Structures are given as C-alpha cells and as structure tokens.
C-alpha cells in the first residue's frame, strides 16, 4: 500500500485538496486509534493561511498520496506570532507539534520521516510533540528519534445519568460572589485577564488572546448559556466554560457528551471554594441538558485540580503524553 515517503513537503498553507486529504487521514487514524491526533487548536489552524507549518508525507514521492501529516508551531520571536496573536516579545521555550500517520501506512518509516523533518525544521529550537492516548507506536517512535516524555495530560470522565452517576453536591458560591452566564460583547476582556492570571504558568491556556477567544465563541458549538462567570463587587473572579460534543467522542463512543472545557479562578479568589462551586454549576447545566457523560483534560501532576475532580466523581480514563526533543549541541 505504498512505499516509504520521499522528501517531506513543508508549506504555510494547504490547498483545498490537501486540506480534504489531511482531514480524511485524521479521521481514518481516529477511527483506528479511538482518539484524534490533532487537538482543537491544530484543527483550527488547518484552514488558517500561514498560521503554522504543515508537513506532508506522500507515498512514493511528490506524486503519491498523502499518508502522513504533522504541523509545527515555532515560538514567537516578535511581538506578533504567525497566527496574528500578540505575544510578550519573548521567545517561547519550544516549538509544538502534532503528528499522525494513516493506519494503512504505519510501520513504513513515515512517522520517523515526519519526526526527523520536525526537528530539522525547528533548527536550534526544542520540539514538543503530543501523543494522544497510550498508542504503543508513539513511545517506539519517540525512542527512535531522540524524544523523551516530558509532560502528561489526564483525560477524566464521569457519568451524569444512570446507575453509576453520583449525585452532584449542593455547593453555593462564597459569600459576595454571584455566578451568571457569559455575555458576548461585555465580558471578553475581563475573561482574558482572569484566564491569563489563573493560567499564568500554563504553556498554552495562559497565552490565549482575543483572537483565540473569538475563534471559539464564533464556532458552531459555542453556547453562552453554558459559559459561567463568577463576579464579586463587579469584578470577574472565575469562570467555568462547558462544551457539548455532538459527534463521536474519545474512545469511539457516540455523542453527545459534555466537557469541562476550561475552569479557572483568579489567584486572589482561590482557596474559598469558588472552583468547586463553578464546577458544580457547569456540571448541573450539562446534566440538566440530558447528557449522559462529561469529560475533561487536566495536567496529570496538578494534584489540586485532579483531587477536586476526583471528589466530584471523575476517574482517569486515559493519559496523553508530550514528548520533548532538545536540539543537538
């Protein structure tokens, strides 16, 4: 079903035909693996010209079918990165990437060719690649190309209905705090400020810009009724943004299913039970919509967050691993 790839094509924008082929490749891999190889941001960037570097591996050279794909986000080196997002002017620590090989072409050197091309394209910059789920080939490819495990993201879930669903606790917000729905056109800047403060140490979430926020609130899945914000004395101090997945979810199960998309509390408002109150408000909303299951992603070493979710009935279902490559010398 094809030979080893020749030269990897690297481009800043995909043609309509290339985009369609990459979409089909990602879906074929997801059907085989039970999880998408591209995260939400990488999927969005497929259609944004010059927002990321696309690496295409073809069977038998330039005229062959696309059998492997990777994207590479290089760190910002100016006040504006290639996606148009405002950065702080300081280079990020590493380039980030995702990589996927069509199931029918695995074991033929496609993954290694893409991994080597990512390292070569990044040059003196370290590279980090996510492996979504415990795919046995990911660890082998990492070892063969000089990548080491660097970070883990836990995928957790709980039932909202049925015999295994624990009742949600009745948690009121701290005194003086009210919880309401996000209002588009009013809350964007305040939310961005709280998000940046709450996730200041997070390598992705804390860097969200207005463009990132607008891309999500403009998506078909966005529903402000499921986006909760907490206020105290007119100041936004926390939030819980939920999401509803209508298609198949991780593991190949049919949707719909809910997600704790992102939950954060401003540093000066932490420690008083607001995070738990926000979590329960969002979970109750998803439960009342009749959704059977809710899921979330959380840093596996964030003991406070993992502990909160475990107390709310979540259990770990899978782990994603980030592999890191340091440049030679």
Explain this structure to me?
Keywords: Acyltransferase, Repeat, Transferase. Catalyzes the transfer of acetyl from acetyl-CoA to desacetylmycothiol (Cys-GlcN-Ins) to form mycothiol. Belongs to the acetyltransferase family. MshD subfamily. It is an enzyme of class 2 (transferase). With about 325 residues, the protein is of the alpha+beta class. It has two domains: about 10-145, Aminopeptidase (3-Layer(aba) Sandwich); about 155-315, Aminopeptidase (3-Layer(aba) Sandwich), CATH 3.40.630.30. About 25% of the residues lie in helices and about 25% in strands. It is built from eight helices and twelve strands. It has helices spanning about 15-35, 40-45, 110-120, 135-145, 190-200, 210-215, 275-290, 305-310; strands spanning about 10, 55-60, 65-75, 95-100, 125-130, 150-160, 175-180, 225-230, 235-245, 255-265, 295-300, 315-325. It has a twelve-stranded mixed beta sheet, with helices on both faces. Residues about 80-90 have low confidence and may be disordered.
List the helices and strands and how they pair.
Blueprint: E1 9-11, H1 16-33, H2 40-45, E2 53-58, E3 66-73, E4 95-101, H3 110-122, E5 127-131, H4 136-145, E6 148-159, E7 177-181, H5 188-198, H6 210-217, E8 227-232, E9 235-245, E10 257-265, H7 274-288, E11 293-299, H8 303-311, E12 315-325
Parallel strand pairs: 4-5, 10-11
Antiparallel strand pairs: 1-2, 2-3, 3-4, 5-12, 6-11, 6-12, 7-8, 8-9, 9-10
